Amino acid sequence: MNPPTAAATADAYDAIAVVYAQLARPDLDTVALDRAVLAAFAEVARTTGPVAELGCGPGPVTAHLRDLGLDVFGVDLSPAMIALAREAYPDLRFEVGSMDALDLADASLGGIVSWYSVIHAAPPDLPAYLAEFRRVLAPGGHLLLAFFESEGEPVTPFDHKVITAYRWPVDHLAELARAAGFVEVGRMLREPGDGERFRRGHLLMRG
């Protein structure tokens, strides 16, 4: 399907891929709560089949999930990001693909991580992404969504450094996921740290 915003997002990330890759890993290394959320996901997903990180960028979260014991691969719409991921982590599988039209069979995944990768989806397009996540996730598999939370406001666009992104109310995003067939397992909100502007949201869902 590839909404118009998807092509613009891919072009924007292609243009800044090298700089972005240099900044991605330190964020994960220094935020204990983010690592804790990923560890919790890894624990529930470890025995349920292969895991895909959708919107993997240059691959640091995919590699972190591998280090947590998961059979994981990455998918991203940006060819430049995938090239950097393959160079940095040659032992892992990375593919170019769109999150709303995945080249995967129905119910073929045991887990999905979307780590700040749906933030650029225009709000009307997000249900299609969630429906595709549900299609490829096996019954009982888990989805982890990380996003910018809107802190009491409605869905709000903001000037992300790469291209326009959106902050979501956690309840609204959870409701959209439920409408797509997911059941909420838990959520974690954390306040912005040094150098961060917005509250971060995390939803763990079961298919």
From TrEMBL:
GO annotation terms (biological process): methylation
Gene3D superfamilies for the chain: Vaccinia Virus protein VP39
Family matches, as SUPFAM superfamilies: S-adenosyl-L-methionine-dependent methyltransferases
Keyword set, alphabetical order: Methyltransferase, Transferase
Keyword Methyltransferase: yes
Pfam families: Methyltransf_25
The Methyltransferase domain, residue ranges: 51-141
Secretion signal, residue range per the UniProt entry: none
Gene Ontology molecular function: any one: methyltransferase activity
UniProt cross-references to PANTHER family, sorted A to Z: METHYLTRANSFERASE (PTHR42912), METHYLTRANSFERASE TYPE 11 DOMAIN-CONTAINING PROTEIN (PTHR42912:SF95)
Protein name according to UniProt: SAM-dependent methyltransferase
Species, as recorded: Actinophytocola xanthii
Taxonomy of the source species: Bacteria, Bacillati, Actinomycetota, Actinomycetes, Pseudonocardiales
